[in-house]
Design goal:
The complex is a heterotrimer of chains A (320), B (283) and C (525).
Chain A lengths: L7 H32 L4 H6 L5 H10 L6 H13 L13 H36 L4 H15 L2 H15 L12 H36 L1 H9 L3 H38 L5 H10 L3 H29 L6
Helix pairs in contact in A: 1-12, 5-6, 5-8, 5-10, 5-12, 6-8, 7-8, 7-10, 8-10, 9-10, 10-11, 10-12, 11-12
Chain B lengths: L1 H7 L2 H5 L5 H18 L1 H4 L31 H37 L1 H16 L2 H12 L3 H27 L3 H8 L4 H13 L1 H23 L11 H7 L9 H31 L1
Helix pairs in contact in B: 3-5, 3-13, 5-6, 5-8, 5-11, 7-8, 8-10, 8-11, 9-10, 11-12, 11-13, 12-13
Chain C lengths: L1 H16 L11 E6 L14 H7 L7 E3 L6 E3 L2 E6 L5 E6 L13 H12 L13 E7 L3 E6 L6 H4 L10 H6 L5 H10 L7 E7 L3 E6 L18 E6 L3 H9 L5 E2 L4 H8 L4 E16 L4 E2 L2 E2 L5 H9 L3 H9 L4 E2 L22 H10 L7 E7 L3 H15 L4 E7 L1 H9 L5 E6 L7 H7 L2 H8 L5 H10 L5 H18 L2 E14 L2 E2 L2 E2 L5 E2 L4 E2 L2
Parallel strand pairs in C: 1-10, 1-11, 16-17
Antiparallel strand pairs in C: 2-3, 4-5, 5-7, 6-7, 8-9, 9-10, 11-19, 12-18, 12-19, 13-14, 15-19, 20-23, 21-22
Helix pairs in contact in C: 9-11, 10-12, 16-17
Classes of the chains: A mainly alpha (320), B mainly alpha (283), C alpha+beta (525).
Chain lengths: 320, 283, 525
């Protein structure tokens, strides 16, 4: 198999450069989030206390949270604390933000990872089949099924899955999150499958189209003319080249996948970071929102990095 | 597998002259959808927002082929009137991002270097930024409604196209024909837009057509959160969300709009594949 | 067969002890599906129903509400007496009461807990016990409340969650500089006075309570309460999932069943679909200020408000939104609230009357207006969509503005909203809380509407110190008369709490104030 550039050193510097590049992104996102959430109408005290709190209570509680100070001052305090590893305390949950994120984020990570794997397992073989049997019955059936998957809202698919595989067939628990690792994988299977449903449809469509494109390309004709075995042609030439745009899409969609996790986590009662995100937006829980944003920015950047490396491996010309 | 590979040698050449069948069927579906979208009143048997307290949650009958919803509104008429809004969502929410993203992507992919580095940071920022915070921020400034949904989707959506196109252009520009163009002394503009882009744009077009279906679905998610189309307007996504509590007792509220999304999405995806095929033939 | 034998055996046992008709069974853990997790288990500093409604299982109060939620019965105190001048309350503590760590519950704990609840700087519930001036102890069993003025609601207040009794020593030993900091630490592993103790809490997922071995309550079999070994709360935010999990037998009960599913679950053979009477009222708040953001406000005209009330077909809304579960309001307060008056629905649908009132008010052609709707809330959207159609008859063009809760609260608090939807549940078995918010202008300008009625304000002031129950009832009758005729709301309906329970669950209770009581719940084996 080909290597990235020539040897390990360029890869190392490539990765290092990308990691350094992540820093400004994370800082930028943090500043925007910090300011934007404070400009949203409403404040933590009113969001938390609801309709009944009288003005004096709201003022007292916002002041006790330091929210009566100007935003730049609040930001300085925040930055100072971040450097001591302190992301603050959740306003609604009254727990350290780091504790909450360490509880919730791994759940969503596991869910997203499982969904991504399931999506690949579904999409890659079926995309090949559809591309090779283009405009035949197999192609029509595969595309039709995926189109249905693409067109169904996550909450609808989720409730259907729970009804069929949970409540009726009892193959899987009806939502929730287990205690042991194995139990958790078991609990997360249906939600991951739900997420994978539309994700794999996007991947499948892209990959099918790319494969058709690559099959027609001159270099495949050339390889065929050289008399290479079909299996080698498929793996070394067709799949490798067809994957380029699919890998890009895969990386981009990880963010969307996380967005889909919000609703999936609600339907399947999974205590993940997606639900935490929604709750903290609606509750104007600024510290949690800031902490989550940092964590997510780092994670998504790392995913991009991974897809870039993978792409460079697929097509060494990319990482010149 | 091996049988298939032997086949592919013949297949494309065989088809090269005719218009792709996918293109034709896609165009028909989308054509009909557009017709309904422009003149819904011609097709709908009832007023889509009129209540009928005496016919709440009635199943499909001759009078109401798709049944009625919890307000006694005719589901068929609502599905038909929703074409107007949903075709709008599909097109308006995606066409801007597609054009802008493609241009940026082509430039970045060809120029590389600093442009690519800056672009990379922008993509990271846009993708990582919590979408919901963005939507709520926009809605709180501009008020809820479809226009603001387009703004929110547009701010994020172009990145997908840009990154897809950039990745392809990057590959294409190292192929022989691009070098040939450079040798011929063509301007970079010409090389990118006349030579590289037509080859590099295929994944973006295919994604665009998927994106249209995704946009309708996003409308559903946002409608579920109350940030999309506003009541009493009929919109498929909102209709499905409305039917959520009735999945076991009045399935027709959500199933029929769902079928409409499937058919329309299929139309767009066939159209996209057809276009992709056409572009490849032209190469 | 086995069952019958068991029942027969139970019956024999019963005859022997001559208690109730059904023999309770002990043991087991009841799993209950909630729509949202709790946030903060401090009786004084919490802010939300998700905490309030389960707190009484952890922390006991001096007095307990009766099952109908309207009266009081003995709790940690067995005797209570309000002095003739109404300026003090004497309470006698129950013999041998202990916290869950086995330490005795002393008058000092009680005095400290009540003073903490009444402290103006603590939380948002202190107004419920604002009449308390001082709390003193007398010997090892007596607690005396000294009041600033006679308070007709003081006994009801002693059943409310915020007057629950906490162990002073353990609380103060918790790490932290301020009361709020200590509360955070204490609430992680609280020492209980109620029937259950917190065992573990996985935020956003599960909360496990186990029985408090030191609880004073006695069951029907003469042994200590609670019957259950424990209660597990599972957080299941999606309505459909909650019901599916109940149907599959993974949980024993589920709260907040959507109204649209009530009929269906009533006919399900394996479930009891309970509709617990409640104090929940659903209404629309109308800003009554002459101007909003510099623009003239038609809603400031009482005739316009009345016209809009008459134009709303409440029965239709009840059918559409609550699927027949709700009933029309007969006053602004629920019929389960003490001193509620009124026996016929307010503003029965009368479109002709509505039109003539609009004409009298000079708005024959109607006007454009808007309503704030909680984004994505199906019930609120349903109501608003119906109102839009109904008010169109009067030429009123209603724009729906879906916003998130914090945005809405901000506009509400600033008094710049036009209309909004809202629901209310009492926290105390007394009309004073709802009336203070809805009617009495000094609290929050009558639901932040700017509405004000001198007579109603005076009546409320007087009623807060009136210890003659008949006189107080008359004051409340007049307040309701005024508010129901010209108040700044469109009263819509009142609804019970829909809770679905497995057939094997017995003795579970949700009182009209919303509190869930698991202390007397038990499960069939």
């Amino acid at each position: 198999m080909q290597n990235i550039g020539s040897g390990a050193l360029p890869l190392f510097s490539f990765v290092l450069r990308r990691i350094l590049q992540m820093i400004p992104t994370v800082v930028f996102i943090l500043v925007v989030t910090f300011v934007l959430v404070r400009l949203l109408p409403g404040d933590p005290a009113s969001a938390m206390l609801g309709d009944r709190a009288i003005d004096a209570d709201v003022k007292r509680i916002n002041a006790s949270l330091g929210l009566d100070k100007p935003i730049p001052v609040q930001f300085l305090y925040f930055v100072k604390n971040v450097f001591t590893g302190d992301l603050g305390t959740s306003i609604a949950l009254k727990l350290p933000v780091t504790t909450i994120i360490m509880q919730r984020l791994p759940v969503t990570l596991m869910l997203t990872l499982m969904a991504a794997l399931l999506a690949l397992v579904l999409a890659v073989p079926l995309a090949f089949l559809a591309a090779l049997r283009r405009e035949q019955t197999a192609d029509a059936v595969i595309r039709g099924t995926f189109q249905v998957g693409l067109s169904m809202p996550v909450f609808y698919v989720g409730i259907l899955m729970l009804t069929v595989f949970g409540a009726t067939l009892k193959w899987f628990p009806v939502g929730g999150y287990g205690d042991t690792f194995a139990d958790r994988l078991y609990h997360l299977f249906l939600p991951a499958l739900t997420l994978a449903f539309s994700f794999s449809a996007v991947l499948m469509r892209n990959l099918r189209s790319s494969i058709i494109g690559v099959i027609n390309a001159e270099y495949v004709d050339f390889a065929r003319a050289k008399g290479l075995r079909p299996r080698i042609i498929m793996t070394r030439h067709v799949l490798r080249n067809a994957l380029i745009s699919t890998v890009t899409l895969f990386g981009l969609q990880i963010g969307t996948l996380f967005g889909g996790a919000v609703i999936t986590e609600t339907v399947f009662a999974v205590p993940g970071a997606g639900r935490l995100m929604i709750d903290s937006i609606y509750g104007r829980d600024y510290p949690v929102l800031q902490g989550l944003t940092i964590a997510l920015a780092v994670l998504v950047s790392l995913t991009f990095l991974a897809t870039d490396i993978f792409q460079a491996w697929l097509d060494p010309r990319v990482a010149r | 597998m091996s049988v298939a590979v032997e086949k592919i040698g013949l297949y494309p050449r065989f088809r090269r002259l005719a218009l792709p069948r996918t293109l034709i069927s896609g165009a028909i579906i989308i054509g009909v959808s557009l017709l309904i979208a422009f003149f819904p009143a011609l097709f709908a048997p009832y007023d889509p927002i009129a209540f009928d307290y005496k016919a709440l949650l009635k199943g499909p009958t001759l009078a109401h082929p798709f049944g009625t919803d919890s307000f006694g509104r005719d589901v068929l008429s609502r599905v038909i009137h929703a074409y107007t809004i949903d075709m709008q969502i599909a097109v308006f929410a995606t066409v801007g991002p597609f054009i802008f993203g493609t241009i940026v992507g082509a430039y970045v992919g060809y120029a590389g270097g600093l442009a690519e580095a800056i672009f990379g940071r922008v993509v990271d920022a846009v993708i990582t930024f919590p979408f919901l915070v963005l939507v709520i921020a926009i809605v709180s400034v501009l008020g809820p409604g479809l226009g603001n949904m387009y703004v929110a989707v547009g701010i994020v959506g172009w990145v997908f196209y840009a990154r897809l196109v950039a990745a392809e252009v990057k590959v294409q520009k190292r192929l022989d024909y691009a070098d040939a163009g450079r040798v011929m002394g063509y301007t970079p503009m010409r090389i990118v837009f006349r030579h590289l882009l037509p080859n590099a744009i295929t994944p973006a077009i295919v994604y665009w057509m998927t994106d249209m279906a995704l946009a309708i679905l996003l409308g559903s998610s946002l409608g579920y959160l109350g940030l999309g189309a506003q009541p009493p307007a009929a919109e498929w996504g909102v209709q499905i969300a409305d039917g959520k509590n009735f999945m076991s007792t009045a399935w027709w509220i959500s199933v029929f709009p769902g079928i409409a999304i499937v058919i329309t999405g299929l139309g767009f995806s066939l159209l996209g594949d057809g276009l992709a095929q056409l572009l490849r033939v032209r190469r | 067969m086995k069952k019958i034998a068991k029942a027969a055996l139970a019956a024999v046992l019963l005859v022997g002890t001559s208690l109730s008709a059904v023999a309770v069974e002990r043991g087991g853990v009841m799993t209950y599906g909630r729509y949202a997790d709790s946030l903060f288990l401090d009786p004084v500093l919490n802010d939300a129903n998700v905490d309030i409604w389960i707190l009484s299982n952890l922390y006991d109060t001096l007095l307990l509400p009766t099952d109908d939620g309207k009266g009081v019965q003995a709790g940690l105190a067995t005797e209570w007496k309000v002095s003739d001048d109404g300026m003090s309350v004497n309470l006698t503590l129950r013999d041998g009461i202990q916290f869950s760590d086995g330490s005795p519950i002393t008058p000092a704990d009680v005095a400290w807990s009540l003073k903490r609840a009444a402290n103006k700087d603590n939380g948002i519930w202190n107004f419920l016990v604002s009449s308390i001036d001082d709390v003193t102890t007398d010997g090892d069993k007596t607690v005396v409340l000294k009041l600033k003025h006679p308070d007709p609601a003081i006994l009801a207040a002693l059943t409310v969650f915020n007057t629950a009794i906490l162990p002073q020593k353990v609380f103060e030993a918790a790490a932290g500089a301020t009361d709020a900091d200590k509360a955070k630490v204490f609430a992680e592993h609280p020492v209980s006075s109620g029937p259950f103790v917190l065992q573990s809490w996985d935020r956003g997922s599960t909360m496990k309570l186990v029985r408090n071995e030191h609880y004073w309550g006695k069951g029907e079999d003469g042994k200590p309460l609670p019957y259950l070994d424990g209660v597990t709360f599972e957080v299941l935010p999606d309505d459909a999932t909650r019901i599916l999990k109940l149907n599959s037998g993974e949980i024993d009960g589920a709260e907040f069943i959507p109204y649209s599913r009530v009929e269906e679950l009533k006919s399900a053979g394996n479930l009891n679909m309970e509709l617990f009477p409640s104090t929940r009222v659903q209404y629309v708040t109308m800003n009554a200020r002459p101007q909003i953001k510099g623009k003239d406000n038609p809603l400031s005209n009482p005739k316009v408000r009345q016209a809009m009330n008459y134009a709303v077909n409440k029965d239709a809304i009840i059918a559409i939104v609550t699927h027949g579960v709700g009933k029309p309001l007969t006053s602004y307060m629920s019929s389960a609230t003490p001193m509620h008056t009124g026996d016929k629905p307010l503003y029965a649908y009368d479109i002709e009357k509505a039109k003539s009132l609009m004409k009298e008010a000079g708005f024959e052609k109607g006007f454009d207006t808007s309503i704030l709707v909680l984004a994505g809330n199906q019930d609120e959207i349903g109501i608003a969509t119906a109102l839009q159609q109904m008010w169109a008859e009067l030429g009123i063009k209603l724009e729906l503005q879906q916003v998130d809760n914090a945005t809405r609260t901000q506009q509400y608090r600033d008094g710049v909203f036009t209309m909004r939807e809202a629901a209310w549940t009492d926290d105390i078995a007394d009309p004073n809380e709802i009336t203070s918010y809805f009617v009495y202008s000094p609290t929050i300008d009558a639901l932040h509407t700017g509405w004000k009625n001198e007579e109603a304000d005076k009546l409320f002031d007087a009623s807060q110190k009136e210890i003659d129950a008949t006189k107080r009832a008359a004051q409340y009758a007049r307040i309701q008369e005024i508010y129901n005729a010209e108040g700044p709301i469109v009263p819509l309906y009142e609804t019970p709490y829909p809770v679905a329970l497995s057939k094997k669950v017995h003795g579970f209770l949700q009182i009209p104030l919303g509190n869930n009581f698991f202390g007397r719940a038990w499960l069939d084996k």
